Amino acid sequence: MPASVRTRRQAAIWALISGGLAVAAGLILRAHTLGLWSRLLLAVAPVVPMVGYGVLTLRALREMDELEARIHLEGAIYGLLGSALLTMLAGLLTRGGILPTYSLGQLWPWLWIAAFLCWAAGCGVAGRRYR
Amino acid sequence: VKNRLRALRAERSWSQGELAAQLGVSRQTVNAIETGRYDPSLPLAFVIAGLFARRIEDIFTPER
Questions:
Q1: Helix A47-63 to helix A3-30 angle, to the nearest 10 degrees?
Q2: CB-based contact B44 A68, cutoff 8 Å
Q3: A130–B41: do the CB atoms touch at under 8 Å?
Q4: Global pTM?
Q5: What CA–CA distance (Å, rounded) separates B56 from B1?
Q6: Do B26 and A65 touch (CB under 8 A)?
Q7: Is the CB of residue A129 less than 8 Å away from at least one CB of chain B?
Q8: What is the three-class DSSP state of A33?
Q9: B16 at the A interface (CB within 8 A)?
Q10: N or C terminus of chain A: which is more exposed, having fewer CB within 10 Å?
């Protein structure tokens, strides 16, 4: 198994841990019954494995062969552009009163999902070009 | 950039996978180079040239 595939699997595990912690923390924090430090700890906990995910993803990128790395970089640009466009559109639609106002606390999971879907779609588009 | 990679590989009866393994890249990379969809980096071009014991310009030529 190529080293980059192994590293990407490790990164996926860290992302799953982060996602699981984020869901659990979101449910617990919704109750508003904890003290300040407990809430702070819960809010920070999912971020820590996400840092591990980022580090491992960068390591996987360096381990990939050059075409695969190029495809993933193009995909990341699609992801960045897609999430930037969606954020801009949602912000302007909200300001125009067309969309209801949501807090960042409600919106961030959707933004996160949109960014990753744009990244995956971008990798698919870039991959097809070199097939 | 045009290249003679497919012809050189055929001379040795190597599959794309076998060539990819010797170059340390994926089969998709070899296929993309052969079909002209992807131009390899200079380090990879040197590895290809070394493997076939040719000069880079004997394998890769600019499209005019």
A1: 160
A2: no
A3: no
A4: 0.81
A5: 12
A6: yes
A7: yes
A8: coil
A9: no
A10: N
For tokens 């070899």, name the residue.
B30
Q: In angstroms, rounded to a whole number, what is the distance separating the alpha carbons of residues B14 and B17?
A: 8
Check if A128 contacts B (Cβ < 8 Å).
no
pLDDT at A32: 73
The per-residue pLDDT for range B44-62, each reduced to its tens digit, is: 999 999 999 999 999 999 8
First to last CA, chain B: 9
Instruction: Tell me the one-letter amino acid at A109.
Output: P
ipTM given for this complex: 0.85
pLDDT in tens, B32-48: 999 999 999 999 999 99
Is the Cβ of A110 closer than 8 Å to some Cβ of chain B? no
Contact residues, A window 65-104, toward B, CB-based 8 Å cutoff: 65-68, 70
User: Comparing A24 with A112, which gets the higher pLDDT?
Assistant: A24
Q: For A43-81, what is each residue's pLDDT tens digit?
A: 999 999 999 999 999 999 999 999 999 999 999 999 899
User: Which of A63, A65, A71 is best to mutate for the B interface (most B CBs within 10 A)?
Assistant: A65
Q: For residue B43, give both structure tokens.
A: 């380090």
Question: Measured between CB atoms, does A30 come within 8 Å of chain B?
Answer: no
Radius of gyration of chain A (CA): 18
CA separation for the pair A24, B40 (Å, rounded): 46
